[in-house]
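Moderator note: this is an archived Q&A kept for reference. The question asked for a predicted structure of one protein chain; the sequence and the answer are reproduced below.
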Amino acid sequence: MRSNKLLLGRAMVVMLVGWAGAMLMTHPASGVDAQSPAQGLPEQRIEIVIRDYDFQMARPAPIQPAMPTVIIVRNQDIVRHGFSSSMLQGILVQGEGEGIAAYGKGVEGFYVDPGKTLVIRFNNQRAGKYSFHCDLHPKMKGEAYVMDVPAA
């Protein structure tokens, strides 16, 4: 059975830890100037590359508080991968990619074909530790930490 999967950040920091133990964090410099049409705020971007059956982070940096979040997943492997996370449960998520368009609550992940890119937009306001994984390849996993950051 095939299901469309979609993956899904307020004063928070999101840190992603890949299966190999590499720390992955968001990179606002890769797109802070982009505007979220819904909220008019700059989007913060997390870019994840899937290569050699591993989630890898491009240019890690902290997320700024109270801003929309974008996760860009690029599959540079030769096989299809899944990208699923408990972080997305119960919140509005928008996912776009070649042949993919989804929006709503209850979407937990996406499939990303070889050579394709997936863009996921969301606002997660729940602090906590969230796992993410490829449901097609059980050894591909990581963690996302969403933490309140007090204003300086």
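Archived answer notes: The first strand starts at residue 12 and ends at 17.
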